[in-house]
TrEMBL record:
Superkingdom of source: Bacteria
InterPro entries: DinB/YfiT-like (IPR034660), Maleyloyr_isom (IPR017517), MDMPI_C-term_domain (IPR010872), MDMPI_metal-binding (IPR024344)
Gene3D superfamilies assigned: dinb family like domain
One of the Pfam families matching this protein, by short name: MDMPI_C
GO MF annotation: an example: metal ion binding
Annotated MDMPI C-terminal domain residues: 177-268
Full protein name: Mycothiol-dependent maleylpyruvate isomerase metal-binding domain-containing protein
Length: 280
């Protein structure tokens, strides 16, 4: 597979440490759920907590080479299914509704155990090889960082549904940092394409709290994430809690402009935040 850009080269040990840790966190969280919590609706349309776990099983099963199960209905006709990826995910979710929650948890543990073994044994050449990822052609390592992001987001979908947010002292862990790294990589697209920041704009997104970091995006013909603005001041600043940023970017929570502080060109900043949801 060819690509016009250089593949993203990521440290295999660091990414797998984050991926395996978030799998452990999800398994531990799920092990403590009662029947009501398993059935609790999430912010993802049509999905309960157990459906989120089923989705994760489906993705990792497909990465192991398993075939997508048939569905009992035409999933493409469901209101919350918007594309082929959504239809594929829905087939796994509906197919796994036939087993008990205890069996579902065991399936999750089994499939992630198999993936741990396969990923640990993967050579550096295969890790860095270009493949198709949800972000387009890139390294397999980038694909696995996307998996960290997806699993970490879904852990918080479960936590939100059952009212068990993670403590601040436990929030800034390797999986969270990798998830934010992956989201940062998309902020050029969000600021330039979705948010329509004009040419010459310098946008600084300042995340606060345990997930604190600053994401700088400069628009010069196209919007790109940069380390700094070369001595120039930002033309727009957006300041908000880091976890809130992830939930807005994932379309998991309604926007309240009162929870965001703006500086500089506020109209540009507000437009970017209003179009922050870029996740499929």
């Amino acid at each position: 597979m060819s690509t016009s850009r250089q593949p993203t080269i990521l440290d295999k040990s660091a990414v797998l440490t984050g991926l395996f840790a978030v799998w452990d966190d999800i398994a531990a969280l799920a092990a403590g759920l009662d029947d009501t919590q398993w059935q609790a609706p999430t912010t993802l349309p049509g999905w309960s907590v157990r459906d989120v776990v089923a989705h994760l099983i489906g993705v990792e099963s497909m990465l192991q080479g398993a075939d997508t199960p048939d569905a009992d209905v035409d999933v493409s006709a469901l209101e919350h299914v918007r594309n082929d990826i959504g239809a594929m995910n829905e087939r796994w979710v509906r197919g796994l509704r036939q087993i008990s929650s205890a069996e579902l948890l065991e399936r999750f543990r089994a499939v992630t155990a198999g993936r741990r073994e396969a990923l640990t044994a993967l050579s550096d050449d295969d890790w860095n090889a270009v493949t198709m990822t949800p972000a387009g052609p890139d390294s397999y390592g980038r694909f696995m960082r996307v998996r960290v992001f997806d699993c970490w987001m879904h852990e918080h979908d479960i936590r939100d549904a059952i009212g068990q947010p993670v403590a601040d002292t436990e929030l800034a862990r390797p999986a969270a940092e990798l998830a934010l790294d992956e989201m940062t990589a998309s902020m050029g697209f969000v600021v330039g394409k979705r948010g329509g920041a004009p040419d010459g704009a310098r946008v600084s997104i300042e995340l606060t709290g345990p997930l604190g970091r600053t994401i700088n995006v400069a628009v010069a013909g196209r919007a790109q994430v940069v380390d700094d603005f070369g001595g120039g001041a930002p033309t727009s600043t957006i300041r908000l809690d880091g976890l809130l940023f992830t939930r807005l970017a994932g379309g998991r929570t309604p926007l309240d402009h009162g929870a965001v502080a703006y500086g500089g060109d506020e109209a540009v900043g507000r437009r970017i935040v209003e179009h922050l949801n870029y996740v499929i």
